[in-house]
Amino acid sequence: MKYSAPTIKDIARALNLSTSTVSRALRDSYEINPATKKLVLEYAAKLNYHPNPIALSLRERRSLSLGVVVCEVANSFFSQVINGVESIAYEKGYQVIISQSRESSVKEWRGLQYLASRSVDGLLMSLSTETTDLSMIRQLHAQGLPIVFFDRVAEDIPTHKVTVDGFQASYKAVSHLIENGYRRIAILANAAFLSITKERLAGYQKALAEHGLPLRESYIRYCDHGGMYYDEVESALRSLLAETPRPDAIFAASDKLTTNSLRVLRLLQIKIPDQMALAGFSNSELTELLDPPLTVIKQPAFEMGRIATELLLQLIESKRPVKEFETRKLQAEVLVRASTLPRKKRIVQYPTSR
């Protein structure tokens, strides 16, 4: 049997009242006497009646809902961002509707269409790795939909943005590798056009330059789907391992790239850190429990979600058009663990890649 939510008409029919009387009673109108209000509210509670959000949005031109677009909820970074979003949204009386792009521009586009059709009051968005065409986002923004970008941002759309200082975080992580004796450091990055990729690559380059190490273009690999697909990471790492000279450390510039790099290196029976050091990004607490525990950059994801939501609500609730926007840049933390232990002076026998 198909579920049918109780309506004002159901309450009115059961209590032999008009729908307008029930509606006013539910809105606590002064026009309805206390006894009738009590009768209506008690019966509504018994039926588990809730106002229809679509009807409310049509009448009040507000849905009290926020749309959130991320690549993947299962990603520990984005799940923590969403927790931050919800901590503010629910406190302010807003519901949160989440759409996953799975790093696909087509799925992202469909998600945006759905959220817009649901008349969300505002949008929090982190771009997919495939998204190069911003025309739909520009159109929604031009039509007056409040949008705040976080993490992966559209740099030329004038609105609030919340990011992490990926440049400084990557610089610190790669400098740590160099100070521990690693000299041939490769980087595995997301799609080249993404804002986070540009920042993290620049931090990697600065660390090499400051320590007098050459920048080898052959040590740079891009994964256009950000590690979402294991085969993409395996192919990139196999090509890096075929380089001469072979890298002695891998810096993975996003969460999925980090964990899938670990999987590939284990598949190839390459010992970490004896034969290859590994550092990357991750907000998962499990990285501390791995063997060896991974050196990771931990981003303030929960704080990012809270700040982005606060900025979005400012846009939504402002009585006047907002013309001045800000970019908040948060600081990440490098957690040093055993996967980047100081390099020992020894002769290493590398296994043949399978």
What is the element string, with H for helices and E for strands?
A: HHHHEHEHEHEEHEHEHEHEEHEE
The major beta sheet can be summarized as: 6 strands, parallel
CATH superfamily of the largest domain: Response regulator
How many helices? The count is 12
Principal-axis shape equals elongated
Task: Indicate the mean pLDDT.
Answer: 91
Biggest sheet, strands in spatial order? 2-1-3-4-5-11
Helix content: 40-55%
The N- to C-terminal Cα distance equals 55 Å
CATH architecture name of the largest domain: 3-Layer(aba) Sandwich
Task: List segments where confidence is low: pLDDT < 50 over at least 5 consecutive residues.
Answer: 345-354
Q: Class by helix and strand content?
A: alpha/beta
CATH class of the largest domain: Alpha Beta
Domain HTH lacI-type: 6-60
Pfam family, one: LacI
GO molecular function, one term: DNA-binding transcription factor activity
InterPro entries: HTH_LacI, Lambda_DNA-bd_dom_sf, Peripla_BP/Lac1_sug-bd_dom, Peripla_BP_I
Write a concise keyword list for the protein shown above:
single chain; 354 residues; alpha/beta; 434 Repressor (Amino-terminal Domain); Rossmann fold; 6-stranded parallel β-sheet; 6-stranded mixed β-sheet; 12 helices; 41% helix; 15% strand; disordered C terminus
Question: How would you summarize the topology of this molecule?
Answer:
Layout: H1 8-15, H2 19-26, H3 34-47, H4 53-60, E1 65-70, H5 76-89, E2 95-100, H6 105-117, E3 122-125, H7 135-142, E4 147-150, E5 161-164, H8 166-179, E6 185-189, H9 195-210, E7 220-222, H10 230-241, E8 249-252, H11 255-267, E9 277-281, E10 295-298, H12 301-317, E11 327-330, E12 333-335
Parallel strand pairs: 1-2, 1-3, 3-4, 4-5, 5-11, 6-7, 6-8, 8-9, 9-10
Antiparallel strand pairs: 10-12
Helix pairs in contact: 1-2, 5-12, 8-9, 10-11
GO molecular function, one term: transcription cis-regulatory region binding
Domain HTH lacI-type: 6-60
Keywords: DNA-binding, Transcription, Transcription regulation
